[in-house]
Amino acid sequence: MDGNGRWAKKRHLPRVMGHQRGVEAVRRLVRALPGSGLEALTLYAFSSENWKRPEDEVADLMTLMKRFLKSDLPDLVAHGIRLKIIGDYKALSPDLVAQLEQALDATSGGTAGTLAVALNYGSQQEIARAAAAAAAEGPITAEAIERHLDTADLPPLDLLIRTSGEVRLSNFLLWQAAYAEMWFTDVLWPDFRPEHLEEALATFAGRERRYGGR
After folding, report:
1. 114 beta partners
2. Cα(30)–Cα(46) distance, rounded to whole angstroms?
3. Which helix (H) or strand (E) holds 183?
4. Which residues partner with 160 through β-bridges?
5. Hey, what long-range contacts does 89-92 have (CB within 8 A, 24 or more apart)?
6. 120 part of the active site
7. pTM above 0.90?
8. Which of 3, 5, 19, 62 could form a disulfide with 189 if both were Cys (CB 3.0 to 4.6 A apart)?
9. Is residue 2 flagged as an active site residue?
10. What does the pLDDT look like over 116-170, one tens digit per residue?
């Protein structure tokens, strides 16, 4: 979900305003999830590398996450959306961890779709953890590693979308993206709307997936 800072800079606003508008973009997509046909929507909210950002920006991001959980949890429950967190979220502040776990419990029965949020997530670290867990059980195979990935209970990744003109994966779902289709857009995340998702899905639907075959 890239482009919050650039969105704010273009408008001569503080970066936190860009992040606030980014949360509104999340809200729009989440509300469009039921009935969209998507089994799961995964959002890269905070990477393990984002700790390198200024302390005040990190604090703003964490505050926005708390506000989103407080304000939007009733909607998630009402619309049957299951929340899932991937990444080492338990390393976050105890109050946020408690709030996240309350939300996970409250939405656990949702069947209309899964909203997976990547928090303190890095794909290389995820793969390393999964490989270590697989090794502790026996032979390290692709299947054994997959069983220990954070996304083990999610459907296979079909489509990876990156906003704001960036054309790289940035340590996101590297294993899962092995045969995923990718869609890049110049739209900054705060301006991303359900119709952009529909455009991405239409493009995806027109692609032929061979998985290494002919």
Report:
1. 40, 82
2. 17
3. strand 181-184
4. 182
5. 89/119, 89/120, 91/120, 92/62, 92/119, 92/120
6. no
7. yes
8. 3
9. yes
10. 999 999 999 999 999 999 999 999 999 999 999 999 999 999 999 999 999 999 9
